Amino acid sequence: NVIVPGGQQIYIAPDSSLSFTRPHSAYIPPGSVVTGFTLQDNELVSPSRFFTACADDDAWKVYVPLETSDIAISRRCIAAFRVATAPATNPVWEYV
Q: Is the pTM of this model over 0.85?
């Protein structure tokens, strides 16, 4: 949950990365998956999918591999983990 006007939406990009719209924009790339997510007890849940974080050069990137995904899971990845919990107070303005 964010408080930036217009909000932000989470989706799975065509490369299977867990992504979100930019602040003040509703653009989602064609071929993205926007369904299947729920928020339970301030935690992102997707019962039919699992989350994988892979180390990139400077940061970690989170993927939601789908059945048709060809994302290679390497030694630099952590599978099946908790994505995040929303702050109980002081909501987030936006994600960038």
A: no
Cα separation, 46 vs 35, in Å, equals 9
Reported as a single tens digit per residue, the pLDDT across 16-41 is: 888 999 988 889 999 998 887 777 77
Is residue 30 assigned to a domain?
yes
Number of domains in the chain: 1
| Within-domain flag for 52 | yes
In a domain, 22, yes or no: yes
Taking the C-alpha atoms of residue 42 and residue 86, their distance in angstroms, rounded to an integer, is 5
Could you give the CA distance from residue 81 to residue 57 in angstroms, rounded to a whole number?
A: 21
DSSP label at residue 22: P
